[in-house]
Amino acid sequence: MLTRSESRQIEHDGFSTLHDYWLNSLFAGEPFLQDGVLVYYDGRIATICGFSLRNKQAIEPALCRRVAQEWVTNRGAENIIFIGPGRVDFCCLSKVGLRKVWEEHPRPISAELFIDCTEQADSIFQRRVYKRARSLAFELTIRRGGIVSAEHFHLIETFYAERRLTAFLAEVLFMLPVLLRSSRVRLIEARKEGRLCGFAMVHKPFCDTASGLFMMCNHSNRGVSDFLYSVMLEQTLALGASSLNLGPSPSPGHFNFKMKWGGEAKVPPYYFVQWGRGVLGRRFHTSWGPRILHL
Predict the structure, then answer these.
(1) Do 43 and 181 sit in the same domain of this protein?
(2) Are 179 and 263 in a shared domain?
(3) Per-residue pLDDT reduced to its tens digit, 138-169
């Protein structure tokens, strides 16, 4: 687990969504900081973050390989996942009985996009997209935690019914009850005539960076996504953060929507590779909850 000193270091120097140990521990496991490398472990899978903390040297491939071997040989990991800015050759894991299960090379849409809310704040809040979004006829509610209402359950089920289930969406579903109840998350709700049309969540995991967690909308209400984005920018400033990390994008449509709002790529596209053995070497389970349900 992280020491208090390590937690403070990550909160001060973290910026990537992969550094957000409070969020990632909900699905990827317990966080560790090993030789400057952030690792999550759920008892079977060790997930290695290849993005260094801010103002630190880039994490070398040799260090990633050494960390991976230690988790397999000394801590009993049956599966290694690596997510980083570039390809790392983990063929050394074949010597300890693992094989490559999956590999994804970087795609532009997996870059983490940020919106600067300080130096460029005037231009952002004066842009037509912001003014138009804030003029939409939605009723705004902002709160921290609380009881998850029937409206939230219904909107979430409708959202999932309209989409193909992916590993990412499965992970989100496991986390949603925790996030909706957490006092550290600001829940932004858009309503029309009292009816919930969509909600977004934002929190501040790092000293100067807020993170947009998830957004779910009923798209029969045009403009609700833009409305929620405009409020997320306002809440970023209210939280005392200078930028909002919108994370990677699951599709080109999501990526282009974030770019419309002024998103800039400040974390490069992800390289992803998974090595495993036994059951975990035959099936593509990326996180604890979906793995238990054999998704």
Answers:
(1) no
(2) yes
(3) 999 999 988 889 999 999 999 999 888 888 88
Instruction: Report d(CA 30, CA 21) in Å as an integer.
Output: 8
Residue 172 lies in domain: 111-267
- Assess whether 139 and 37 both reside in one domain: no
Give the integer Cα–Cα distance in Å for 209 and 54: 12
Q: How far is CA 232 from the centre of its chain?
A: 16
Instruction: Indicate the number of domains in the chain.
Output: 2
**Distance from the first to the final alpha carbon of the chain:** 28
**Per-residue b/e over 7-44, b at no fewer than 16 CB within 10 Å?**
bebbbeebbbbbbbbbbbbbbbbebbbeeebbbbbbeb
Q: What is the pLDDT of residues 206-254, one digit of tens each?
A: 999 999 999 999 878 899 999 999 999 999 999 999 999 999 999 999 9
pTM value is: 0.93
Is-contact 143 187, C-beta < 8 A? Answer: yes
Same domain, 22 and 138: no
230 shares its domain with 143: yes
Q: How far apart are CA 23 and CA 200, in angstroms?
A: 15
